[in-house]
Amino acid sequence: MNGPLLSVDVAALAPAGSYLALRVGFAFPLEEVNRLPPEWVDHYTAKGLMLADPAMRWIYANTGAIRWSEIALDDPLQVLAQARSFGLRYGLAVSLHDDTPLGQRSFGLFARADREFDDSEVALLTLYLTRRHEERMPPSNLTAAELEALRMVKDGQRVKQIAHELGVSEGAVKQRLKNAKRKLNAATSAQAATMATEFGLI
Hints:
Blueprint: H1 10-13, E1 17-24, E2 29-34, H2 38-46, H3 54-61, E3 64-67, H4 79-85, E4 90-97, E5 105-112, H5 119-135, H6 144-154, H7 159-166, H8 170-184, H9 189-198
Antiparallel strand pairs: 1-2, 1-5, 3-4, 4-5
């Protein structure tokens, strides 16, 4: 995906704030970008509104995009009304989920104070989130041997120890780690091990 996506200005499209959670695993996202008003974040957190938030409930039950005003779910705590009092008057929820074994989800919340998001903005923000979701997709071409070497690096072992434990040469271990770094686009073996852990590969 390229073209107009490269010039997407999320702050201009969602001037009241935005929140991105990319590649959410069992509990936490691989990457999080929170540009919502700090006062709202503090209020939302202090009141424990997440489980009652109809936008969040929609996100975890659906894929696609929906304006907050179109969400047909109960809002007993009036979360969306509370959001409006913090300037988040019009909102958009976008949710993506892939069919990989990890089954990870990415989602975005976007807000304006002045008007509803128009269809072109909905499409652009959906494409933007899709691109970010795909960019953070874990590689699927790491071999079992490369993952094993990364797991041992994660455990603090050095090349010599890894080679001894696996019964292979140090050169073989170095080659496995080199391949893993290339596939993960990592600068060091430690960074590659961290990335593999974040992706849930090891």
